[in-house]
Please model this.
Amino acid sequence: MTLSVLVVDDDESIRTTLVEFFVSLGHTVRGAGTASEGRRLAQEHAPDVVLLDLRLPDANGLVAMTAFKADDPDVAVILLTGFADVRTAVQAMHEGASDVLEKPIDLQTLAAAVLRSAEPGRLRQEVSILRAQSRPPSGVSDPTVFDPTIEQLVELAARNSDAPVLLQGETGTGKGHIARLIHDRSSKNALPFIEINCASLSSTFFESELFGHERGAFTDARAAKRGLLEIAGDGSIFLDEVAEMAPDVQPRFLKVLEDRTFRRLGGTTVLHAGARIIVATNQPLPQAVANGRFRADLFYRLQVLTLTVPPLRERVGDILPLARAFLPRGARLGQSAEDILRRYDWPGNVRELKNTIWRAAILADGAEIHSGHLGLFVSEPLPAPEPLSQREMASESMRDVERGAIRHALSVTGGNRSKAALRLGIARSTLLEKIKRFGL
Model:
């Protein structure tokens, strides 16, 4: 785990030694000789841990610690003193110090104390982000049924935890759930899993969320902020709707994939990006590349492991198992409801199915769910065609059969050409061409 560490000590030799030691461990480290300089650096860079000398030329260490904690409640402060006594240590811990260490300091002991002290702040940030992200309604679980081929690809992605993953499929097919499955089954499952939607924020705020920012990087940036890449640490970060990523953000994101490094907005310090990257899109990225909306080099870098999630209408066998998995405790499906669920086209895919089941369970109010509770419109099935005689079969041309099928499809859909094309399994443009050719 890469941390941001601030060393505040007026003894230059100690300060330099500590800075060089933590830099050698791969952390981002800054040094300050006074409390006021240290507070300024903390406001600008939001460190994870502050190593604070108890006696500074311009302030008592305990007073300085109170100021650091007031600016950033998540920052961990370790007090360093050459004059330790029990009373001071107790007071420091009572006022919020993560640890109190006596000089001369054993560096390995200090390194362990820094890692231990940073963990609660990281966890609080992760919990805060997870609470802010959408959650499924109470009592409704996420989908658990997938094609065996998808399961194999999920396992493959989980085993290769450093490779980026591209999930593609229609809206509502469960790409977010698959991203979570990949993380949970990987060696990173005990580390943070952070989500962000690329279409939900403006370019500047999205960059701020992903990369973090330094104080003054833009208007209203009154304090430094850690980005999601920092908070994710060595875990996983899931970027949904990646095709909507602003063009000016894409080069910076590409650098994360190529070099595993980034800078906060307004920052000059290079930070390490250890998180595994998982992205999802409901738009064909090759088309976005052809239209100039998405960088070709970024697309090629993302498609190392590509997993296509089919729409629910192509997974008819999954509909009822998924519907039963979404049922709140005590709810049950009647036969009429199951018949409608199988026959419906599910343009909104798994998300629509989940919300339909949730709504139907509320309307049923504890009783068995029947078709009326679902509120789904299903057109009547096509009547079985009359068998043709041998003579008729011989005389019937393919053209006549095709014309009759189109006429019938238009009839049962009330003239709706989109629905007729869907019933016939052809593109709407193809149907329009045939209607014109047959004079229908």
Remarks:
- The chain is about 50% helix and 15% strand.
- The radius of gyration is 30 Å.
- Residues 51 and 389 are 93 Å apart (CA to CA).
- Confidence is low (pLDDT under 50) at residues 134-141.
